[in-house]
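#struct-help
A.M.: can someone run this one for me? Single chain, 339 residues.
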Amino acid sequence: MTNRAQNIFKPEFRFGLGGVPLGNEFEKRTDSDAQATLEAAWSMGVRYYDVAPWYGLGLAERRFGHFLHNQRRDDYLLSSKVGKLFKASKDNNHADMFPLSDSPNNLVIDYTADGVRRSIEDSLQRLGVSHLDIAFVHDLSPDFAFFPDGGWEKQYDIARKGAFPALSKMRDEGIIRAWGVGVNTPFAILKVIEDADPDVCLCARQYSLIEHANALNEVLPAVRAKNVSLVMASALNAGLISGSPRYNYGKENFNIPPEVIQKLAQLRAVAARHGVDLRTAALQFSSAPAEAVALIVGAGSAREIQENWNSMQTKIPPEFWSELKQQGLIEQNAAEPAL
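D.P.: on it. Structure tokens below:
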């Protein structure tokens, strides 16, 4: 039996452009940079775009919308996220969140039914489009640093009573086509598939060459049993695998575990022996599970999206994957990419 997400994700939507870099999370990008990136993505055939109000506190959605509203709506897939609203303020509180976004907005966490509907309406206005294909309940997990008193458990309970049924209703109304949670840890994915009726969840940084055992052995079987699909993200652990001194959205050169540094060195050594680009291998690895209907990868320039696109077309020798398993660098039961 196929679910709604599997029907939505046609083959041309299996690779997507993620919006984090165009929200200026890691470095300053101009509007011209963003337009060039989106034009390059479209010209090479990218037709899935993932954004969020959180990315630059509205900046990424405005930039994606500036480009996408000129395209025929049925020609692309668009996902955004809910759970964060903004209020304009001259004395905004975003300095610790997106210091490069120049946003005039204050953040308001809101997983209520009314808040989620307001969030989607705001996103549709910023994007300039008629509907979202997928809405992800964003950052509903313990790692999010900006929850108010009560932490993620309190916010999850609000979402369970508010956001989840509201999104199912909006799906029935045709405002969205599918929904799920978009998180960096497994807790909310495992809970929401028991507490509600999601279609697809965004699984970020949980299934990568660096770390994937828990996702492989816990999350994938659970979503498969509930007929829920996954969109994979942060296959490079926020840039670490591709050479960035940053790990899982942390600050540069800060708190990278020694065992992660050691594993990365081992992965690079195997890749060098087989003449494989490790970034290419990481992207293909994250997209390989049968439960994954798409992979989204962030890019902040035309060059980066071209490199990512090329990586998904590259053939990697099976011997590379065999050696990774022999050395215990990936799990024995992990799916191997096939082109």
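A.M.: thanks! Residues 10-326 form a domain with the TIM Barrel fold (CATH 3.20.20.100).
D.P.: also worth noting: The two ends are 25 Å apart (CA to CA).
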